[in-house]
Amino acid sequence: MTRRCPSCGAESSVLDLRCGSCGAYIRDRVPALNLFSTLWGIIESPETTFLRIARSEQKNYTFLLFALTGPVLVALVLAAARVGDTDTPFSYVLLACVAAGPVFGLLAFVAATAALRSVFRVSTGARLRFRQTGAYAAFGISPLLWTSVIVLPLQLGIFGVLLFSTNPPAWQTQPLPYWSFVGIDLLALLWSMVLLPRPFMLHGLSYGTAFTRTLVFWTVLAAFVLAGVFLFHAAI
User: Lower CB count within 10 Å: N or C terminus of the chain?
Assistant: First the structure.
């Protein structure tokens, strides 16, 4: 995406601070991001907000958002591993989500971001730095962040260890709240998948091209979840 310099009329990228031809400033500086206004902007105006993220100089909050989203990944691992069918105390489950969740999130999302950056650089030639790609990913999956910090605690409070059990399963004991939460989780996942390609369009890519490349991000996350399930079964 490009814009014309108001001084000389030359074409410049919308991400450039100064015109490459005459050196004039063509946009305002964005030294850092405000966390809450940026998260709200993703809901209200994704295109404008992603442009601001791309232009920001600090790219702050990336690792914080990765860590805060981690508990929902750990919860998915525990559910897939059917930890509720074992003798694992619920207090250990809570500890895993709260303590191990941020660490697991950092590892999984950093690896997924590195893979995403490599795919874009190799297949499209887009000059993306890791910090830039990480900021796109962290805010692009913000719907999952909300499920991690709001929906997951509600699920744990309502279902307890039954959330991770098949005997009896939570969908039999409390079907209405269970399927309501499942619907919210799926909506958050789909919304994240739709949002994630948007910032890469600022680098001259079509939405379809960006979407297909971002699938590697979700593939890496799925691999981490499966690895977590395997390690859990190997440990018990």
Answer: C
Distance CA 75, CA 29 (A): 40
Q: Tens digit of pLDDT for each residue in 180-232? A: 999 999 999 999 999 999 999 998 899 999 999 999 999 999 999 999 999 98
What is the Cα 16 distance to its own chain's centre?
26
Enumerate the domain spans of the chain. Answer: 1-30, 33-235
Long-range contacts made by residues 201-206, C-beta under 8 angstroms, separation at least 24?
A: 201/1, 202/1, 202/14, 202/15, 202/50, 202/51, 202/54, 203/124, 203/126, 203/127, 203/128, 204/1, 204/126, 205/124, 205/126
Q: Which residues contact 208 (CB under 8 A, 6 or more apart)?
A: none
pTM: 0.90
Q: What is the largest CA-CA distance in the chain?
A: 71
Contacts of 226 (CB under 8 A, 6+ apart): 80
Query: How far apart (Å, rounded) are the C-alpha atoms in residues 224 and 142?
Result: 19
**CA-to-CA dists, residue 167 to 12, 20, 83, 87, 219, angstroms:** 61, 65, 11, 12, 30
CB 147 within 8 A of CB 72: yes
How much is the mean pLDDT over the chain? Answer: 89
As a whole number of angstroms, the distance between CA 210 and CA 90 comes to 41
Count, residues in the chain: 236
* Secondary structure element (H or E) that encloses residue 29, with its range: none
